[in-house]
Amino acid sequence: MSTKKETPGLRINPMCNDCTLLGRGCEGTFSTVWTGCVYHITKAEEIAAAKNREVPNV
Asked: Which residue from 17, 29, 36, 42 puts its CA 20 to 30 A from 2's CA?
């Protein structure tokens, strides 16, 4: 299942394809002038952040 929204004649910027925020508060961008995004989070980064938040059992 893809959360990407396609607009006829436009393609979403490739940097948005692996971002976990796409479709979860961010619609991505069709502009390909820039290749970086300060909000970009990959699945691996999201998993690592979740592991750092885990509370150990005492």
From this structure: 36
| Close Cβ partners of 7 (under 8 Å, ≥ 6 residues apart) | 30
Higher pLDDT: 57 or 26? It is: 26
Taking the whole predicted model, whether its pTM rises above 0.85 is answered as no
Instruction: Dig out the tokens for 55 from the structure.
Output: 């509370």
User: Cα separation of 24 and 27, whole Å?
Assistant: 8
Query: How far is Cα 57 from Cα 52, in angstroms, rounded to an integer?
Result: 14
Tokens of 17: 């394809």
For tokens 């925020």, name the residue. 21
